[in-house]
Amino acid sequence: MPVRDFRLILGQGEKIEKPKRPAARVRKLAPPSARQAYAALKATAGSGELIEKNPDLGKVLLWKEIASFRVCGKTGTALFLDLWDCDHFDGFTDIPRALSTCQAWFSADGFSVWGSPETKTGRVNCFFRAPAAGIYVCNAQLESSPAASLSVVECLIDSFSFGPLAFTGPITQPHVSVLPAGFHHFRIRQKSGAFFFRSLTVFRIA
């Protein structure tokens, strides 16, 4: 039996005005194709050196999609999509809307009038199987929220950190790694700012 230390008292509410909420987001974007991810890789500093050392990385026809993760589903060798401390804000990014638009929202500052603790503890864990040893590209599709603001996350493959990733608006960001065959985690950790997780697509350089 629970210990009943709680005692009823009479609470007293107060009159409040209904604050405005942000307009609902309804955009549903497809995950980037291999060519789109390749273009993003080429536009990233350091890509020339990586391609020079790993020439197959520069041949987009060798990019083979093996796994993809979105809120509304997984494909290929994708096993588990874990979302920690994502935020349900009714009428904006509630669960039905997250499923219909295939994205999850991680809030930051603001919304305290609605009870937000204003934490930056969002986490995404994408667990997949690499069918063979080789070079893999994990392509993260994110968007800062609001779009004009700056957000910062940290991306990792297993225990290896790629360092801070700062972005404003939508971003398609490839992360290249050498993986042994077997199971791996690609993780996204919120550092500052609010953001949407849209997708993670894993390509193997065959």
Helix content: 10-25%
Give me the number of helical elements. 3
Task: Kindly identify the CATH topology of the domain at 63-205.
Answer: Jelly Rolls
CATH hierarchy: architecture of the domain at 63-205 = Sandwich
Summing up helix and strand content along with how strands pair, one would put the structural category as mainly beta
What is the averaged pLDDT score?
90
Q: Mind describing the biggest β-sheet?
A: 6 strands, antiparallel
Radius of gyration, taken over Cα atoms and rounded to an integer in Å = 20 Å
Beta-strand percent range: 35-45%
Uncertain spans: none
Distance between the termini: 61 Å
CATH top level of the domain at 63-205 is Mainly Beta
| Envelope shape | elongated
**String of helices and strands:** HHEEEHEEEEEEEE
Assign the CATH superfamily of the domain at 63-205: Galactose-binding domain-like
The number of E-state strands comes to 11
Question: What tags apply to this protein structure?
Answer:
mainly beta; Jelly Rolls; 5-stranded antiparallel sheet; 3 helices; 11% helix; elongated
Strand and helix layout:
Elements (H helix, E strand, L loop, with lengths): L33 H9 L4 H7 L9 E8 L2 E4 L1 E7 L10 H7 L2 E3 L16 E8 L3 E12 L4 E8 L2 E9 L1 E10 L2 E11 L1 E12 L1
Task: Describe the protein in words.
It is a single chain. By secondary structure, the protein is mostly beta strands. It has a domain at 63-205: Galactose-binding domain-like (Jelly Rolls, Sandwich). It is built from three helices and eleven strands, in the order ααβββαββββββββ. It has helices spanning 34-42, 47-53, 95-101, and strands at residues 63-70, 73-76, 78-84, 104-106, 123-130, 134-145, 150-157, 160-168, 170-179, 182-192, 194-205. The strands form two sheets. Strands 1, 2, 4, 6, 9 and 11 form a six-stranded antiparallel sheet that branches. Strands 3-5-10-7-8 form a five-stranded antiparallel sheet, with no helix packed on it. The protein is elongated. The protein starts with 33 loop residues before the first helix and ends with a strand.
